[in-house]
Amino acid sequence: MKEKKHKNVFIPGAISSEFIAESIKKHQTKTSIGAHDIFLGQVRADVIEGKEITAIDYSCYEEMALEKFHEIREATFSKFDLTCMHIYHSLGVVKAGEICLFVFVSSPRRKEVFKAIEYVVEEIKAKVPVYGKELFEDESHQWKVNT
Taking Cα atoms as reference points, which of 71, 140, 58, 138 lies closest to residue 98? Predict the structure, then answer.
């Protein structure tokens, strides 16, 4: 039996506003949906020990990360009454101010999307092996710690 390949959620570089807008537009024909909620994760220009972050370079063990994304997706559909859900995460360099995570959930009812979006984002942060190397203005770097 052939193993099912999980949906690829990775996008090289930043997630563009055009990509996000097109995703929203595609759902306008789905008339059973009454609510959407979107989470956009953006790279912050934090200052750490006097140095400003200019970008984050995201990497992962792709097979394992895709498996975790799939598990989170399945668990979310079992917990919440959703019509659909989309998750996209950047790989590679994303500059400060750019989008690195796009989660989009839809349901017939608004309360479901609010609960589901928080659940999905917290599960991603806790369980998906995606790593970020913070790149500083002085060209030094360090591994990002999720909080």
Answer: 58
Give the span between the Cα atoms of 132 and 46, in whole angstroms: 14
Residues in CB range of 66: below 8 A, 6 or more apart: 6, 7, 8, 9
> Which of 52, 137, 56 is closest to 89 using CA atoms?
56
- Dmax over Cα atoms in the chain, in whole Å? 55
Please give the model's pTM, rounded to 2 decimal places.
0.92
Gap between the Cα atoms of 90 and 101, Å rounded = 6
End-to-end C-alpha distance for the chain, whole angstroms = 40
Q: What is the pLDDT of residue 147?
A: 61
Residue with tokens 């759902």: 27
Q: What CATH number should be reported for the domain whose range is 10-143?
A: 3.90.1170.40
Amino acid in position 63: E
